[in-house]
């Protein structure tokens, strides 16, 4: 006859592990995906070393497609570029690594940190499906054309943050999150740097944040090799003019 005591002991030992699993699962549950665009010229301006690729891109490029909660959900699920071989022309065009041309470092980071968490959703539960859906949403949103419809274009003139936000709000009917490089001492403008547009688990547009959530120190995701740039991006200041810099403008801030 099997002794009851060892079974009871085993059950008691499993309880903490079960609670740990539930806590882990809860900490990685997400409700929306954040399609993040960055303006290449501003991104390269933030770098303390020359970012030679900026002039090759006169359009918003993809930074990432991030669940709004969780990160590094499966360390053993390594990125393999051969899994997305059919997507490479679009990846190189719309999701380039601005600091390391022809490298897969950025894609690897985005998959390991964000894709492995997004993969809890069946429709994006492989590397191919995750990156393909990211590209699909990027093309559907078509941020460059949307801003152009409202006469917001890269220019030497400045815009108010309200103009940019309302253009996106009016077109997509949801609130974006807009991030800038705030002015250094003596400067009068902030540089438009990153725009986030969010979707729910059905890939329907949803608010990225409510006004009360737009705190100055927003949580910016950048790979370790881009930490210098990350430190400079903040939710744009409502009271400061916004420069959406054209590619030809020389704004290098080398110090």
TrEMBL record:
Keywords: Disulfide bond, Endonuclease, Endoplasmic reticulum, Glycoprotein, Hydrolase, Lyase, Lysosome, Nuclease, Secreted, Signal. Residues 1-20 form the signal peptide. It is found in: Endoplasmic reticulum lumen; Lysosome lumen; Secreted. GO terms for molecular function: hydrolase activity; ribonuclease T2 activity; RNA binding. It catalyses: a guanylyl-uridine-RNA = a 3'-end 2',3'-cyclophospho-GMP-RNA + a 5'-end dephospho-uridine-RNA; an adenylyl-uridine-RNA = a 3'-end 2',3'-cyclophospho-AMP-RNA + a 5'-end dephospho-uridine-RNA. Its main location: endoplasmic reticulum. The keyword Aminoacyl-tRNA synthetase does not apply. One of its GO terms (cellular component) is extracellular region. One of its GO terms (biological process) is RNA catabolic process. InterPro entries: Ribonuclease_T2_eukaryotic, RNase_T2-like, RNase_T2-like_sf, RNase_T2_His_AS_2. The active site is at residues 63, 110, 114. SUPFAM superfamilies: Ribonuclease Rh-like. Gene3D superfamilies: Ribonuclease T2-like (3.90.730.10). Belongs to the RNase T2 family. PANTHER family: RIBONUCLEASE T2. This is RNT2 Ribonuclease. It comes from Polypterus senegalus.
